Protein 1
Amino acid sequence: MLWGDILAERGDDEEALDRYREALRLDPSQLATYLRIADVFRKRGQPTERLAILEEGLAWFRENESRFEPRPDPEVFSPFNEKAVDVHRELTDAIALLQAQVDLLRRGEDPYAD
């Protein structure tokens, strides 16, 4: 993802989008990558594509939420159970953030208007 950030800063949007897409292919659980792609589309004035990538991220997180639901086990070392709870909380926070942005964009509002 870092390479995508460098390319985006240089203004090489197409190459940045390619790198970000590759990052999502390798690890679709990275909320920041969806947000960075959406930001490139925002800067390019492409609201349809921006909404689409946010919806794609929202769908991924919703589809995978149950996989990350913590299942505390008294036989498992406590920090591992706590980490499972933290990971699930991050996932539900990602869903809430993406849903809020999708809702705003669908209403024609921009959460990051310049």
Protein 2
Amino acid sequence: MTKVKIGNLQLEASDRYDPVIIASLEQHVTSQIQESKPYDKEANLFLLKLYQFNTSKTNVEFVKKVLILALMYGGATNDFTLATYLIQDKQVCTANILTRQ
């Protein structure tokens, strides 16, 4: 295994797209919310990209958290728009990700 740098994280993985790192990226999203860690746009968007490649591992709750972070901290930029482009249409429709509840 080698070290892979994604955003502010150094992870152990065979390569950058190894689905093994999904859990670490999800934990990183949680730490940005609960522990007020710095917003990490690159790592958050990369988590959504890994969900694209590994649809069976998609966690809708973390998709929502990434979208919330993008709105809160990337509001003046296009972070939210970039994040929505990485979400598959099927996920949006079945999970009501972008609808008011």
